[in-house]
Design brief:
The structure is a single chain. The protein is of the alpha+beta class and about 120 residues long. The chain has one domain. Helix content is about 30%, strand content about 20%. The chain contains three helices and seven strands; from the N terminus they run ββαββαββαβ.
Length: about 120
């Protein structure tokens, strides 16, 4: 889809892999879209919308998809930023680019935590 190298992550990958992907794109950050229902995520595109489209083509449902940014060199909660235009969904009660619902943020953290290992 673009020169960044979009991929759908279904199996755990090392945080070092994210550092390499970030270096090819934005430098210190990568965009990701997480499917909280299927426990997968798309990474490596220039736009969240491209990752969202890839997941929809793969069988995801739009209400389950949330856009985030990952900063693989950071640690703790700061390494996940909840900010994407695809998150603006007044019909789902999300009126901002962030993820307003704490349960949804927890589900996103859980999926990312399962798919990204520190070693």
């Amino acid at each position: 889809m673009d020169s960044f190298g979009l991929q759908i992550v279904r199996e755990p990958l090392a945080r070092a892999d994210l550092v390499a992907i970030a270096a090819r794109g934005f430098g210190d950050m990568i965009k990701a879209v997480v499917d909280v229902e299927r426990g997968i995520m798309a990474i490596g595109a220039e736009l969240h919308a491209d990752e969202e489209a890839a997941l929809l083509d793969d069988g995801s449902r739009q209400p389950d998809l949330w856009g985030i940014n990952l900063y693989p060199d950071d640690s703790g909660d700061e390494w996940i930023e909840f900010d994407s235009m695809i998150n603006v969904r007044p019909g789902q009660g999300n009126r901002s680019r962030g993820v307003d619902d704490e349960a949804s943020r927890s589900a996103i953290r859980r999926v990312v935590g399962t798919l990204v290992r520190d070693a």
